[in-house]
Amino acid sequence: STISHFQFQFATWKDIVMMVVGSVCALVHGAASPLMLLVYGMMTNTFVDYEREVQELKDPNKTCNNNTIYWVNDTVYETDENTTLYCGVDIEAQMTLFAYYYVGIGFGVLIVSYFQIAFWVTAAAKQTQRIRKTYFRKVMRMEIGWFDCNSVGELNTRISDDINKINSAIADQVSIFIERISTFVFGFMVGFIGGWKLTLVVIAVSPLIGIGAGLMAVARLTGRELKAYAKAGAVADEVLSSIRTVAAFGGEEKEAERYDRNLVEAQNWGVKKGTIIGVFQGYLWCIIFLCYGLAFWYGSKLVIDTKEMTAGTLIQVFFGVLMAAMNLGQASPCLEAFASGRAAAKSIFETIDREPEIDCLSEEGHKLDKVQGDIEFHNITFYYPSRPDVKILDNLSMQIRAGETTAFVGPSGSGKSTTVQLIQRFYDPKEGTVTLDGHDIHTLNIQWLRSLIGIVEQEPVLFATTIAENIRFGRPGVTVDDIIQAAKEANAYNFIMELPQKFETMVGEGGGQMSGGQKQRIAIARALIRNPKILLLDMATSALDNESEAVVQEALDNVRTGRTTISIAHRLSTIRNADVIIGFEHGQAVERGTHSELLGKQGVYFTLVTLQSQGQTNTTSGRSHVVCQISLRLRSLSQLSNDFVPDALSGSLKIQQNDVEEHVEPAPVARILKYNQQEWPYMLLGSLGAAVNGSVNPIYAILFSQILGTFAIQDLNEQRKQINGICVLFCIVAVASFISQFLQGYSFAKSGELLTRRLRKVGFQAMLKQEIGWFDNPINSPGALTTRLATDASMVQGATGPQIGMIVNSLTSIGVSFIIAFYFSWKLTLVILCFLPLIGLSGVFQAKMLTGFANEDKKAMEEAGQVSSEALANIRTIAGLAKESSFVDSYEQKLELPYKSAKKKANIYGLCFGFAQCVIFMAYAASFRYGGFLVRAEGLQYMFVFRVISAVVISGTALGRASSFTPDYAKAKTAAAQFFKLLDRVPKISISQSDGEKWENFRGEINFLNCKFTYPTRPDTQVLKGLRVSVNPGQTLAFVGSSGCGKSTSVQLLERFYDPDEGQVVIDSVPSHSVNVPFLRSQIGIVSQEPVLFDCSIAENIQYGDNTRSVSMEEIIEASKKAYLHDFVMTLPDKYETQVGAQGSQLSRGQKQRIAIARAIVRNPKILLLDEATSALDTESEKTVQTALDEARKGRTCIVIAHRLSTIQTADIIAVMSHGAVIEQGTHDKLMAKRGAYYKLVTTGAPIN
Fold first, then answer.
1. Would you call 1157 exposed, middle or buried from its count of C-beta atoms within 10 A (0-12, 13-18, 19+)?
2. CA geometry: angle at 1139 spanning 1136 and 1143, to 5°?
């Protein structure tokens, strides 16, 4: 019950008045067409009488006197049935009267239909606006636990799509539904008034027509193709988002094959769908013609034999019932809109009615006058709402004293970050209390509480605005001086002043334009400007390299004084100087004390310290080993800090996106057809079917008028014979039309789907051929490319099959109609032709209405959508800053424009609709009036008048309708153009097997000679500025340096993901740009920081290492033993067949890392690249992985990139990089002796300049 009235619970009385008036108008509009039938029936009778009179008076012995026919000798002429005959019909006066009727009805319709649409659409726009505001405001008030259970993507779709669905369910659809139902009712009424017997007969068969029309609507609306394509789409998405891995391991061919295999399902479904539509359409037309046959046969019996009906009432009944049936069928798509609107409304209104457990916008709760900053946890037990089965905190008690710095340490997953979130009151504990200065934080005002707290997270979130604005988010109403002061305290002032626009620099979406250290410092400034009493640092420096870490650490040390500070860290160097250290394990605080006290206790802290300082004492108790294993699993599930690790590239490029939407010339159809030429037999068959379909309507016009003509024949037997002949013809047409519709549907679906599949495969292969730089461009982000494959390819087929079908269909339809019309009366045809463009237009309009208006609204909503998606993605940060209300305001402000345009559109839409509806009435008025004149003046047979008018009008409406059914032709051509542009693009780095040199014994000697390089998407920053370094075969070269100095870039040049702008990379004394790319890559194995695994089994992931052959199981096991992976795999239930999940999500980082190493070993590469292969691991896994790597390095040239210096001391050459060039190189001992940058780094972790 709640949902049935849902739709209007946001309506004000004004809206309700509008909707009521709109409904009344719709009712009246629905009655117009049946009314027209009454006029039409009267008119037919007039014509039949006149024709009779003309036939009788052909006999020179009869004359017309006092409106009765007399013999010339003045006796009244009586027919066989002893009745007199009426004569003296003034056909022109009668026709003029009818013309006025028509015009009157037409004007009425124009006005009524305008109000019907304008009122409903306006009212809907107002309500939707209200729903959007209420919904967003409610979502922003929800507690964080609710966001854990609802994905941000889902909420975004709800805000945009679901509310649009509600909108379409309460807008014009309702009025059109009312109008169609009203036509249905009045149609039957007209029928029953005219003749109940015939009405009942037609009613008996009309459900068949209704079902046909309904089925058509349903068949067209299924979105199953996209579902069928989903599998292939998932493959494409997975491959494109990990394109670097695919390229590095030469998996392009393999992936294209895998994609093509998955396309079969989509293709079969498409053919099925086309066939089904063909059958339904065939069925619909077949039934309609059979009904015509039946009705005319029975109706003529009633007219001739029992005389209970006239020819006029026959037509009136027949069309009344037919119209009613058709309209009932057409009302069914509206029901679909209502149903989806109700389903959408259910989730929306559930959210609107839900009361948040922790309401951040509420005014309730105390505000303390003076805050010390003592925090205590009393016996806290806690589970995340999204995972109620995992106990995170287990009876935790601890106290944090005001003004001290307390550090939390412990393996990941032991509940450190969780405690921080409880202090912010993102969650409420299951049991126990958190108190601030002895007050339970439940009783405090949330906004006020959060305003006391400054937080700096591991992955700080910046908003897509300027630096100054980002800092200002910390506290409303701060001055510029405050901002500068905060920036200075956070060590951020200097780097900000070096930027061209200083504080007005845009930070990009998610802060993508800034490096990690810069983002971190802006976030610290934002926390400081609040002047917080409590400072929470959650792994604030863990994602940084040594240089940035030192700077950020210094900033943090300065600001901690006099504040209650809680610091969580993995790196112990950052914890040593805390006042108190609390060790966590299994959700409990197990120890507490200073650095030296805890070392004495030999507990959790001691274990972590010894593991990290590599002081390999054997105190690593077995217990701790288990802890690390477990904690890793937990962390990867708990998705707190690592939930959102933006891809460095996609982040940094969002900004330039707007100006790159370039204009593409539509593709020539000839080229599209060329791709489809193998299917020509199908297309020929389809066109034949279409031609037959086109000529059906005009033939119907002939048969229809022929029947009217028979009623004027005097000889009754002749009359019956003719009528039976016509009814048989109807049946023949019915069968022919079924067959041809089926042919057209099936053939074009088959040719179209084959084309789609071919294009998708070719397009996917073309994408995989592009160089990596091409993927960096935001236009070619994986999301955009997969959509392109999904939609563009299927749109292109709209330019071939259906388009050809439609053109053939329309041409034959028009051709045959005009031949008929001109043959019988060219004058009348010319008159009607004037109206034809208008009738066609009105058909197009009506089609456009159903589709076109939705798309325009979407565009307008985009800006508001950006606000909402940014707000939802960063909800934690916003909650921490207590900034919910400012996002709500900004969202509501962005909604104003679309709302205004929606109101304006309502009027335009109403006018178009009204015009489209009334054109046909005007056309009838003019043509019948002129027809009447021709009948009188030129003795034209009246049945020819009907024949001509119905032929032309039918072809006109058919035209308009047909044009609406074809998928948008222009879109298809643009889609094709984009596609061909992709196919024609020549990649800058060719990966074909034939280009470039290969040689026999590859040694693996590498020289970088003065390489300079700039990323194509960021042309203003040069990354490498003359890199020179060389490695001999079998040596290990380690790159050290601050982030952004070009370490990873040099590896990408070696893989030839990019080529240097100047200088060369020389491999075995051959410059890299002349080496065959697949050959070069087959010699290189790479293990990167975040290894990409594919969603298949462990064995298949390892096999991916060598795609040129199939790798045997023995080799896999061999490799995984070397990678220290084998033992772990054997503990899994499915061993090597275990699925790793999307992006390897089922495994911990250390396990993923070792699979990646095994994958690299299977390649048996000559060169091994390790790009920060251990940086993301905790200490325990790091040791295992490190051992595996040392094993793999034996006898290979190896390039290592590391943030942690401990991992590279054994390297043959250590190259210290700064700003894209090497500043010193040598072995560890040499460099230590040199006492240069490296020495400084090792001893202090100080920045390199």
1. buried
2. 125
Q: Give me 997's structure tokens.
A: 């040199």
Q: How far is CA 1200 from CA 648, 935, 1068, 1203, 1236, in A?
A: 20, 97, 19, 10, 21
Ordered DSSP codes for 426-495: SS--SEEEEEETTEEGGGB-HHHHHHHEEEE-SS----SSBHHHHHHTTSTT--HHHHHHHHHHTT-HHH
Q: Give the pLDDT band of residue 649 (cuts 50, 70, 90).
A: very low
pLDDT value of position 621: 34
- The pLDDT of residue 894 is 78
Q: Which residues touch 731 (CB under 8 Å, ≥6 apart)?
A: 289, 290, 293
Looking at residue 722, its pLDDT comes to: 86
Question: 1191, 1120 in Cβ contact below 8 A?
Answer: no
Within 825-883, where are the H helices? 826-873, 875-881
CB 1224 within 8 A of CB 1213: no
Give the span between the Cα atoms of 201 and 296, in whole angstroms.
11
Surface-to-core class of residue 1074, CB atoms within 10 Å of its CB (0-12 exposed, 13-18 middle, 19+ buried): exposed
| Cα–Cα distance for residue pair 1113/1119, rounded to 1 Å | 10
Residue of 687, 931, 669 whose CA lies nearest to 825: 931
Looking up tokens 């006005």 gives 111
Mean pLDDT of 153-161: 73
Element (H, E) at 1070: strand 1070-1071
Nearest to 1024 by CA among 1044, 1054, 1038: 1044
Q: Which residues pair with 69 in a beta bridge?
A: 64
Instruction: Provide the token pair at 1116.
Output: 């896999």
3-state secondary structure of 593: strand
Confidence tier at 24 by pLDDT (50, 70, 90): very high
**Chain-centroid distance, C-alpha 449:** 39
Q: What's the alpha-carbon Rg for the chain, to the nearest Å?
A: 40
CB-facing half-sphere around the CA of 826: CA atoms within 13 A: 2
Question: CA-to-CA distance for 309 and 331, rounded, in angstroms?
Answer: 31
For residue 616, with 0-12 CB atoms within 10 Å meaning exposed, 13-18 middle and 19 or more buried, which class applies? exposed
Question: With contact defined as beta carbons under 8 Å apart, do 602 and 614 qualify?
Answer: no
Domains and CATH numbers, the chain: 9-185+329-361+871-939 (1.20.1560.10), 375-596 (3.40.50.300), 1092-1164 (3.40.50.300)
Per-residue model confidence as pLDDT tens digits over 1034-1070: 888 888 776 666 777 888 888 888 888 888 888 888 8
Nearest CA among 1114, 1157, 1153 for reference residue 1136: 1114
Burial of 1215 (0-12, 13-18, 19+ CB in 10 A): buried
Helices and strands, counts by H and E, the chain: 43, 22
The percentage of the chain sitting over the pLDDT mark of 90, rounded to a whole number, equals 1
> H/E element holding 498?
helix 493-498
Nearest to 737 by CA among 682, 801, 794, 694: 694
In whole angstroms, give the CA distance from residue 178 to residue 25: 9
Compute the distance between CA of residue 291 and CA of residue 1196 in angstroms, rounded to an integer. 83
d(CA 920, CA 839): 6
Number of Cβ atoms within 10 Å of the Cβ of 75: 8
- Mean local confidence (pLDDT), 274-291: 82
Give φ, ψ of 381 to 5 degrees: -120, 140
Degrees to nearest 5, angle at CA 590 with 587 and 595: 120
Q: What's the start-to-end Cα distance of the chain, in Å?
A: 71
Decide: helix, strand or coil at residue 85. coil
